[in-house]
Amino acid sequence: MLITHDTRCALDAVVDLVNTSPEGDETPDGLPDVAALADFVRNHEFSDVGVLSEFDLSAVRKVRGRFAAIFAEPDARTAAGLINELVAAAGTTPRLTDHDGYDWHVHYFAPGASVADHLAADCGMALAFFVVAGEQERLRRCEAPDCRHAFVDLSRNRSRRYCDSRTCGNRLHVAAYRARRKEAAG
Ligand SMILES: [Zn+2]
Ligand SMILES: [Zn+2]
User: Fold this and answer.
1) Are 143 and 74 in contact (CB under 8 A)?
2) Which residue, among 111, 150, 135, 143, has the nearest Cα to 12 in the 3D structure?
3) Ligand 2 centroid from CA 173, angstroms
4) If you average pLDDT over residues 2-27, what whole number do you get?
5) How many angstroms does the Cα of residue 130 sit away from the middle of ligand 1?
6) C-beta separation of 21 from 36 below 8 A
7) How far apart are CA 104 and CA 120, in angstroms?
8) DSSP bridge partners of 23
């Protein structure tokens, strides 16, 4: 499957976005205010989003919840339905561009789109291509029980299990090792 520069950027953005979701009492919302959203937009180099407002913040959080449901959704038909809804609500204007010295690629967001619509259109389409390629299972959640972060497995044999093998993968190995030792000692 061909992953162009823009698809890669969109995937990074959607993974980062989903991973700002609050979880229980321990993980607060990673997008608590408009300033945090502005940082997110800056980090991902979104162009043309204008001045951000509370309205943008709540729209982005809504889109985030819809993206979150797509990661680790086992059923392709369900994932396709969710992506269709997201992209349709955003309204898209596909257009070819070779901005900033990149090869020709397609932008999906409409000119002047809000940041939420920009995310829904371009990240939604990036995820759509995984369904098209029959590779939707690459949209994963970390298997470390106390993590569950979203990630996209771009490994050749789709074997990646953790969002970060150095932290989550390693932490799990250590826990398994300790459990084995305890059992052996017991
Ligand atoms: Zn581009
Ligand atoms: Zn993890």
Assistant:
1) no
2) 150
3) 13
4) 89
5) 19
6) no
7) 21
8) 27
CATH architecture of 5-185: Orthogonal Bundle (1.10)
> What separation in Å is there between the alpha carbon of 90 and the centre of ligand 2?
30
Distance 38 CA to ligand 1 centre (A): 19
Among the listed residues 110, 66, 100, 56, the one whose alpha carbon sits nearest the alpha carbon of residue 86: 66
**Dist. CA 94–CA 83, nearest whole Å:** 16
Distance between Cα 31 and ligand 2 center (Å): 19
pLDDT in tens, 87-103: 999 989 999 999 888 88
What local confidence, expressed as pLDDT, does residue 45 receive?
86
Q: 122: which 2 tokens?
A: 């371009």
Q: Which ligand is nearest to the CA of 146?
A: 2
pTM across the whole model: 0.88
Whether 51 and 73 have beta carbons less than 8 Å apart is answered as no
**148 CA distance to ligand 1 centroid (A)?**
30
Total length of the chain: 186
Q: What is the whole-number distance in angstroms between the Cα of residue 129 and the centre of ligand 1?
A: 16
- H or E element at residue 48: none
Domain ranges for the chain: 5-185
- Is pLDDT above 80 for 168? yes
